[in-house]
Amino acid sequence: MLMTILSTVIFFGFLCLWLLPPYLKQGKQDKLPFRWILFTMLGGAVVAGGISIGLQLLLDRWQVAHIEGLAGQAFSAFISAALVEELTKFLVARVMMIFAKPVRKIDVIFLFAASGVGFEILETVLGFSNSGSIAGAILRGVICLHVFLQMFMGIHYDACQAAKAAGKKVRAVLQMVVAFLLPILVHGLNDFSLFFMQMELNSYSALPAGAEMPILLPVSVVSVAVAVIADLVFIIHSLVVTYREAKRSRAAEAAAAANQVSAE
After folding, report:
1. What confidence tens digit (pLDDT) does each residue in 109-139 have?
2. Do 46 and 121 meet the contact criterion of CB atoms below 8 Å apart?
3. Which residue range forms the structural domain that includes residue 116?
4. Distance set, CA 43 to CA 130, 146, 157 (Å)
5. What is the Cα 125 distance to its own chain's centre?
6. Would you say residue 4 lies in a domain?
7. For residue 35, which of 64, 68, 107, 183 sits 20 to 30 Å off, Cα-Cα?
8. What is the number of domains present in the chain?
């Protein structure tokens, strides 16, 4: 219970640190009403979370019966977790776009982020997200993985739609592939690398004193390092684009105000 509360507090603290400044600094013209952000958060928690849990139970049951060892864990990480969760969060954000009708790229980004926030809240409340340690809670709070993966997906999905509208079919397909494939790969890598390292550490701790280190232990540590670097790349990319779009929305608002004054 204590770790759940700690994880939640840390998550919201860093979420505000990352996203509150661009949200407050964006232009007001054509700004998406905040209620759509709240509705999407609710959808991310209830709809995406509920469907994901149900599908994961079915897939994990099949995996236990048919795939063992590291291959089974890879299936669980990349298919049961990454593919299912990213797809359901995307569908929630996409459906909300139909009703909210955002006209600015920054609003699309915040809608996708909201889907990730809702999902992250559900995982935290249910205790799926805490690692049992303060360090793990802090790391998860800092990274906000579900949120930034969805922001990345929203950025490139919007780019896909823009390319499609401009008649650039190849670019649209590439943007859609990037929007889906990279978040799924990074999400799966995070889950799999942590399990891989924990498995190797458990194996090493069970060995008698003086025994040689298992050859795969350094490999597992490197895999975690690669996952963290990928997380940082996603975070930086998503924040840079979000701040840029906030600045653009302010500039568009200022230009519209100047045009109105000159017209008068």
Report:
1. 999 999 999 998 888 777 655 455 555 566 6
2. no
3. 32-247
4. 22, 14, 19
5. 17
6. no
7. 183
8. 1
Residues 60-100: pLDDT tens digits?
Answer: 899 988 898 889 989 999 999 999 999 999 999 999 999 99
The first and second tokens of residue 79, run together, are 């298919």
- The three state secondary structure string of the chain is CHHHHHHHHHHHHHHHHHHHHHHHHCCCCCCCCHHHHHHHHHHHHHHHHHHHHHHHHHHHHHHHHHCCHHHHHHHHHHHHHHHHHHHHHHHHHHHHHHHHCCCCHHHHHHHHHHHHHHHHHHHHHCCCCCCCCHHHHHHHHHHCHHHHHHHHHHHHHHHHHHHHHCCCHHHHHHHHHHHHHHHHHHHHHHHHHHHHHHHHHHHHHCCCCCCCCCCHHHHHHHHHHHHHHHHHHHHHHHHHHHHHHHHHHHHHHHHHHHHHHHHC
φ/ψ (deg, to 5) at 213: -65, 135
Yes or no: say if 15 and 142 are a contact pair by the CB < 8 Å rule. no
Amino acid letter for position 44? G
Tokens of 251: 């500039």
74 inside domain:
yes
Instruction: Say how many Å lie between the first and final Cα of the chain, rounded.
Output: 61
* In-domain check, residue 18: no
Q: Are 89 and 122 in contact (CB under 8 A)?
A: no
Q: How far apart are CA 13 and CA 254, in angstroms?
A: 31
**Residue-level pLDDT at 133:** 55
Q: How confident is the model at residue 101 (pLDDT cuts 50, 70, 90)?
A: very high
Q: How many beta carbons lie within 10 A of that of residue 207, not counting itself? A: 11
> Phi and psi for 3 in degrees, rounded to 5?
-70, -35
Domain assignment present for 23 = no
